[in-house]
Amino acid sequence: MKVDPHDVFKGKEEITCSYVPKFPAAAEREYLHLVNGYMRILKESLEEYIPKLRDILREDVRTDSKETEKERKRQRAENFARMSASMEELFRRIRRTMEQKMDLYDIARRMRAIANKTRLLTVKEWKKAIGRALGIDIFEDYYLGEFFRRELDAWITQNTDLIQSIPHDALGDMKRVIYEGYVAGRSVTDISRDIQKRYQVNRSKARLLARDQMGKLNAEITEAQQRDAGIRKYTWRTSKDSRVRKDHKRLEGRTFSWDDPPVVDTRTGRRGHPGQDYQCRCIAVAVLERDNLHLPV
Ligand SMILES: [Zn+2]
Q1: 108 occurs within a structural domain
Q2: How many domains, the chain?
Q3: How far is the CA of 274 from the centre of ligand 1 (A)?
Q4: 171-218, pLDDT tens digit by residue?
């Protein structure tokens, strides 16, 4: 390192970066956009077959105004095998329709674009943090190394699989709701409403998953960046709002080693670094040690 220690460190062994890197929100928006696209595919595929679905559910029920839920239940128990065969066939068709639509999406390429954007944004923030702390400019393309590529590739593969499983899982969930409603003797209108509700639930779940995955990628890149620069310690920074979990609040402002993560869950004793926990928005702010820096200047 060619940093003049008298200027920056003022005789100290180490300093903590004053700049707290920002979360790659623009990349997260793209991921959410992708998730919404996939949920839309599910919705469209499902809507295409709703009339057929209503037919299947309805054909067994003799519509009699005096008919009670109990009577419907009895009839449906009798007709279950026939209904179930039609239903399975219908869901196979919905799945096929969905897959055809998903094939047009070029998901792996889009995932790669999101991962690359995250990397660029994270490097930019890292550059800012180092620039403010040490007054030096680091190379951005330095972080295109083999190590980074491997980590990004793993994330891309994992998330490509993950996002493709979302509509499939959601569809399975809806099928379950239909069967349960059918057996319980719920009316077709009620079952349709249940499907709508499940769709909303699955959509929110998918959005949370996207945010979580972005947080994990950001955390991974941050760790790789810092270790690469010879940084051994970081200061834990929470987002300091009401959503920060108690166990992370406890860690705010404290310094930890990359080789020895603190306990992030006092109940289980599980350990971790900032951003690794589900939906965690905490940040690892680098502690720069005067004699242990390898920065690409
Ligand atoms: Zn956190």
Answers
A1: yes
A2: 1
A3: 6
A4: 999 999 999 999 998 889 999 999 999 999 999 999 999 999 999 999
